[in-house]
């Protein structure tokens, strides 16, 4: 019977260097892949969070515009006091006290798009607050009951009384080169 003798020579220095070089290349590729995946995950997460913020702003803006002109005391409240391409101001008497200066801070509201800083600001009796950042475009458009656009902005008092729908277009850019567009049409209930 023949016995098999194990080879005890081991690795040469050249073989060891080749193995280490291959290990370094594979490790670099894996780390690059993981880094890229993490970067993509962060960008996607930021974009999703930004879109959620835009939806929340649309929800708030739509709710307040639909409530504009709420006047349970029938005092002849003017629902829209300022209508321009990048500014809207609406009033409502939510607490029914006959005044928009009542205890509720959300009875006289102004939304302003500040193009220089790319911010949408909301102003109430409590002060001004930036509610959306990184905007590259923002526009209000106004329509009458027949769906015809009222284009002469800022709107006169007579044109503000004719407004039945407001279109809101927002373009944001959470990361350069990745625009997010949202548009909606809000039906004004009171007026």
Structure, briefly:
With 191 residues, this protein is an alpha+beta fold.
Explain the overall architecture:
The chain is of the alpha+beta class. It has two helices and nine strands, in the order H-E-E-E-E-E-E-E-H-E-E. The strands form two sheets. A five-stranded antiparallel beta sheet has the order 1-2-3-4-5. The longest helix is centred in the first third of the chain and has 55 residues, at 13-67. The N and C termini lie far apart (107 Å).
Any key phrases for this structure?
191 residues, alpha+beta, 5-stranded antiparallel β-sheet, 4-stranded antiparallel β-sheet, rod-shaped
Task: Give the fraction of residues assigned to helices.
Answer: 25-40%
SS-derived structural category: alpha+beta
In percent, how much strand structure appears in the residues?
25-35%
Identify low-pLDDT runs: none
Radius of gyration: 30 Å
- Report the strand count: 9
> What coarse outline follows from CA principal-axis ratios?
rod-shaped
**Largest beta sheet, briefly?**
5 strands, antiparallel
Q: Average pLDDT value? A: 89
Distance between the termini: 107 Å
Strand order of the largest sheet: 1-2-3-4-5
Q: Provide a count of the helices.
A: 2
Helix and strand sequence:
HEEEEEEEHEE
Could you outline the blueprint of secondary structure elements for this entry?
Blueprint: H1 13-67, E1 80-83, E2 87-91, E3 108-114, E4 119-124, E5 127-132, E6 135-143, E7 149-150, H2 157-162, E8 165-172, E9 180-187
Antiparallel strand pairs: 1-2, 2-3, 3-4, 4-5, 6-7, 6-8, 8-9
């Amino acid at each position: 019977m023949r016995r098999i003798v194990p080879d005890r020579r081991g690795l040469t220095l050249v073989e060891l260097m080749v193995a280490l070089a291959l290990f370094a290349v594979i490790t670099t590729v894996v780390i690059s892949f993981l880094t890229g995946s993490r970067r993509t995950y962060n960008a996607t997460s930021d974009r999703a969070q930004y879109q959620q913020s835009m939806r929340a702003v649309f929800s708030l803006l739509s709710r307040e515009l639909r409530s504009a002109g709420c006047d349970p005391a029938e005092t002849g409240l003017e629902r829209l006091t300022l209508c321009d391409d990048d500014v809207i101001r609406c009033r409502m008497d939510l607490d029914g006290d006959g005044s928009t200066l009542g205890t509720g801070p959300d009875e006289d509201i102004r939304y302003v798009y500040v193009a220089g800083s790319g911010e949408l600001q909301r102003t109430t009796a409590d002060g001004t607050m930036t509610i959306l950042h990184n905007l590259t475009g923002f526009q209000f458009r106004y329509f009458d009951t027949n769906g015809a656009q009222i284009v002469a902005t800022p709107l006169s008092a007579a044109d503000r009384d004719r407004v039945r729908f407001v279109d809101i277009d927002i373009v944001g850019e959470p990361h350069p080169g990745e625009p997010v567009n949202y548009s909606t049409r809000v039906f004004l209930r009171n007026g």
